[in-house]
């Protein structure tokens, strides 16, 4: 069983390197990695070391924006990465009440592109609706870092990132923050709708079917276990 599990892990990591970093690992390299990982695991098991974490469980809840602010949660994902990509988001007031939402699809793309598109469309919607004190949350730390930092000139999403940075530079109070995915599940719900919809963009003046229960849970500060 250990041989199988470590083998799956090596294959998964090699695939991620190929897809995300354009880095190819030869079969021989993967075998050596697998063998080394097996030896490390066996060494730990044989030593009788107790590696069970005693950290207390972490509970996450959606948090309301400060008085006078509205909150935008956005998300995006691709099935397969790259694959069929979608995005979505929603705007709520300081009591957690629904103000607006959106969802859309962009065809074949990566997770990062989908999340960037979700952020851009959410910012544009906020501006068009006239909100000028905004708290923005995304569960992708990579996206947050891309927006805060200056991407390399050859970055494939440079134009899109610059557009997002220009949106933040407008005359409004608008800040971007990272949130754990358990506190962003309503945006994830809308992003999943984006995959199945026919229009490239949909505006939701009221919550779509199935989302109201999640919204009520957020308003009541229902917590979710961090996994």
Model description:
This protein has 227 residues and is an alpha/beta fold. It contains seven helices and eight strands. It has helices at residues 2-20, 27-47, 111-128, 141-148, 158-168, 185-196, 212-219, and strands at residues 59-60, 70-79, 83-92, 98-109, 133-138, 173-178, 201-204, 224-225. A six-stranded mixed β-sheet has the order 6-5-2-3-4-7, with helices on both faces. A two-stranded antiparallel ribbon has the order 1-8. β3 and β4 (98-109) form a beta hairpin. α1 (2-20) packs across α2 (27-47) and α3 runs parallel beside α5. It starts with a helix and ends with a strand. The model has no long low-confidence stretch (mean pLDDT 86). This is RNase H type-1 domain-containing protein. Residues 66-196 form the RNase H type-1 domain. GO terms for molecular function: nucleic acid binding; RNA-DNA hybrid ribonuclease activity.
Lay out the secondary structure:
Elements: H1 2-20, H2 27-47, E1 59-60, E2 70-79, E3 83-92, E4 98-109, H3 111-128, E5 133-138, H4 141-148, H5 158-168, E6 173-178, H6 185-196, E7 201-204, H7 212-219, E8 224-225
Parallel strand pairs: 2-5, 5-6
Antiparallel strand pairs: 1-8, 2-3, 3-4, 4-7
Helix pairs in contact: 1-2, 3-5
Strand order of the largest sheet: 6-5-2-3-4-7
Work out the number of β strands. Answer: 8
Query: What does the average pLDDT come to?
Result: 86
Helix content: 40-55%
The low-confidence parts are none
What count of helical segments does DSSP give? 7
Beta-strand content estimate = 15-25%
Question: N-to-C terminal Cα separation, in Å?
Answer: 24 Å
One letter per element, helices H and strands E, the order comes to HHEEEEHEHHEHEHE
Protein name: RNase H type-1 domain-containing protein
GO molecular function: nucleic acid binding; RNA-DNA hybrid ribonuclease activity
InterPro entries: RNase_H-like, RNase_H-like_dom_plant, RNaseH-like_sf, RNaseH_domain, RNaseH_sf
Keywords: Signal
